[in-house]
Amino acid sequence: MRADSDWGAPASYIPELARVDPAQFAISVVTADGRLHTAGNAETRFSVQSITKVFTLAIALGRSGDQLWQRVGREPSGLAFNSIIQLEQEQGRPRNPFINAGAIVTTDEVLSGRAPRDALAEIVQFIRTAAGSDDIHINEAVAASETAHGHRNFALAHFLASFDNLKNPPEMTLGTYFHHCALEMTTTQLAMAGRFLMGSPAGPGLLSTARVRRLNALMLTCGHYDGSGDFAYRVGIPGKSGVGGGILAIVPGQASIAVWSPGLNHYGNSLKGTEALAMLASRMNWSIF
Amino acid sequence: MRADSDWGAPASYIPELARVDPAQFAISVVTADGRLHTAGNAETRFSVQSITKVFTLAIALGRSGDQLWQRVGREPSGLAFNSIIQLEQEQGRPRNPFINAGAIVTTDEVLSGRAPRDALAEIVQFIRTAAGSDDIHINEAVAASETAHGHRNFALAHFLASFDNLKNPPEMTLGTYFHHCALEMTTTQLAMAGRFLMGSPAGPGLLSTARVRRLNALMLTCGHYDGSGDFAYRVGIPGKSGVGGGILAIVPGQASIAVWSPGLNHYGNSLKGTEALAMLASRMNWSIF
Amino acid sequence: MRADSDWGAPASYIPELARVDPAQFAISVVTADGRLHTAGNAETRFSVQSITKVFTLAIALGRSGDQLWQRVGREPSGLAFNSIIQLEQEQGRPRNPFINAGAIVTTDEVLSGRAPRDALAEIVQFIRTAAGSDDIHINEAVAASETAHGHRNFALAHFLASFDNLKNPPEMTLGTYFHHCALEMTTTQLAMAGRFLMGSPAGPGLLSTARVRRLNALMLTCGHYDGSGDFAYRVGIPGKSGVGGGILAIVPGQASIAVWSPGLNHYGNSLKGTEALAMLASRMNWSIF
Amino acid sequence: MRADSDWGAPASYIPELARVDPAQFAISVVTADGRLHTAGNAETRFSVQSITKVFTLAIALGRSGDQLWQRVGREPSGLAFNSIIQLEQEQGRPRNPFINAGAIVTTDEVLSGRAPRDALAEIVQFIRTAAGSDDIHINEAVAASETAHGHRNFALAHFLASFDNLKNPPEMTLGTYFHHCALEMTTTQLAMAGRFLMGSPAGPGLLSTARVRRLNALMLTCGHYDGSGDFAYRVGIPGKSGVGGGILAIVPGQASIAVWSPGLNHYGNSLKGTEALAMLASRMNWSIF
Q1: pTM higher than the cut 0.90
Q2: What are the residue ranges spanned by the domains of chain C?
């Protein structure tokens, strides 16, 4: 991973992400025995973006249980993360909670009538507790920029509303959505926050084993948009990527891993992050299969 | 699972499958220590259909290696098993080897210039070796009926050919495809044949560990057509279903399971077979997540 | 057309349209010699809705000429009037100016930086001049209701904006759009307003003959959403329908016809209005073919 | 149209069409008074291809009447001429008789149990009678080449069969289809053959006025594939194009026009032929609008 390698290009749709230097890399691994291993810029904060969808899904399932699945499906989409095509073909029910439309629905479920600040407080507190750190914050400039450039997400939210699959006004749900996506974390904070998905005693015990397994199943089948099958094939463990270049990956019972490198591959997932995870999993003989 | 339960309806597109009594059930489990457990009609032969796609994929990868992926993808399809829509949208490259179009391509790769009988002999011998039984045969009546009613598959094959993604004449590749899908096995034979996917020393060691893991990854993300995400969520282990009502499921390192019940759910997967696997996995605490 | 006939159901998406009695009918015909013929409730005002898209297109072409076609196409859509699928597949360029997305673009072009009230004033004045009547007004309750229930149109507008195919803020363009769709006219006013599309000296001479012909061509190929081919086949003259149950139809050089009956067929076009036009065209031997 | 102009590229999918020199042009016009006007290579025979779909449709309507519309629609497709997507989405009913799938259905209807040679004899005789010339023949080399390279059409035919929308075996219907598409005519023969679509006494009176009008309506809305709206807008008269570079266009009551120039535009319609028709229609003030 020398300076002359191809690092991929960072997300370009908002200036805050576009101007990040792609030639950065960090990895943090927390093993089941509680030990932490890091390399690279592991104390640099980055925009976790879609990775928060795992945490909001955990909260939404905690609040609503299986009723949530009436509003959103559990199948891979076969299309880009922000596609609206299936939403029309399938009457406003997003395919899964990890594409944008589905995450807007889970955010809407977490919101459910409360003021956005209260829902956000719950989401942030959940992540801080999971990570064991209070030093995790929302980048307001990123949230504002997402709002200003978020026409595609506004389209998705209004489309959901046209099928009565939004309980709150689109602006309110999207405001909450843009803010939790704008959380910033270091890879170490993120790996710590993912411990509960190991399903081991080392985790904070926030969810039942059955629910943890189901979150991992969803990450495996849907966590990398239309590159999920490829990630499962090449890396072999559940993971969730964000457009900021982060990936949270879980080796059940063994490790919680966070990588970050801002350059993306053509699926919109971290290029070097994916390669690093494939290498690490292979060398450690980590695979769920 | 009493007589008054809803067993689902068997596949109806050919008489040979349509007239099977749906109120049948069998399960066979082979554990890593080589012990066999069975229940129900475990000695009844049924049409394994799409489950053979796992074996032909294993053979195709053995013959062609990663070059195969130039002709077929590794992503869930988000559409029905016999849909032709993505094939047009993605220039004749099927999304994965387990939807019909993809399995026609892997069959075409296994065929590669040989007489169909030679390719079929290799496929049947692979499965017999894996199962440790020579008493596994093709049902010619089923193969003939598939051919007679196979307009949708002929459409897929000609469509592939129109994009130069078929090396052999459509009739020849389809003849081979229809024949290996017409193999009949008992659940015990199928569970035995699946041992090599456990990746354990008890298996016949036909493939490397890395390749076994990748086959399991593909089964998990794509093995149940557009119900793959749901199966991963509810059952939590890799599996491949067939329209004859069979499912082969793998608990890596621990068990190879075959279930059979001819009634299907709306995805085209065995209704009772899926339920039985979910129950068994839960009680045995078997999950890859 | 007796009381016991099937009148179809009125549009149901806003209360103002849903509560209109479907068992109403009106027709007004203005011939090239300037004579007016009417039958039914020809002095009842109804919501013209999408029929205004013809007039806004005429204005947009007058302001921008053929540059408009960089933003919107001229092909039938093959999908419902409010579908968003092709908008994604074709990078935010609507197929034609008569589906919702296309009419939002032409409205945006008419608006082009002005205050909505100024653009609306131009649209209303154009129609009043064409009709030779100042007694044509916007129903503010309908406009407000469209805004309140317009999530699908908001989705389309934001989607257009995400592809940089909207010059004004979505709310501003949509406000203008909802208002001109909420114009109310009688069939007589509408038939009078359509005279300029006859291309005859009796018309107000607002447009060149070439442009008039092109507007008629667009009405023929795209004027009845995904029922345009059927209307051309059965009726044989250009027309533009509105979800309020009105249709403006043109016999070039001979007649401008307005019909109204609020019950719709499954394409969303007036059921009895279409039947009446087919009957009239047949009896009068009016056809462009 | 000098030597240095851009003539477009001829169809490339079979050698017989690909090797035609694109820098050729011919036009023949028959007016209602029976006079013939020609320019260019008006005695050169070219492959009329899809233009025969107009004649087979006329025959199919004569044999089956409106029952034909149960098997095929009358709406523009919004997709390429050989797309299979809508065929799956709309359960095997092609959108109109002028896209490939629809023309296979009308050919199947004309065939209806007879030997292909008998159906072909009827089609050829119909065209010869319409043209007033017996010197019109099928190019067997073109028909054979279409068969050899016709995987996309085989896919369409089998797909239709899978929905029970084919009465004859796919090979038989396609054999008939490929043969009538392989007819060769001069522009003069074609313009003569189109006279009956003028609806005037000069025509051979093969069809009723109502049916003639409906054929023209279908040509206008669907006759140029996904460029039909553009042709209606720019040229303003009904027409049907063929991939061999020919176009038959009709000015109802006034003229039957055939143009030919083998180079195609991106819709698959003759580039120079379309331009010539636009120019001619404009200069002659010919328009149906």
Answers
A1: yes
A2: 15-284
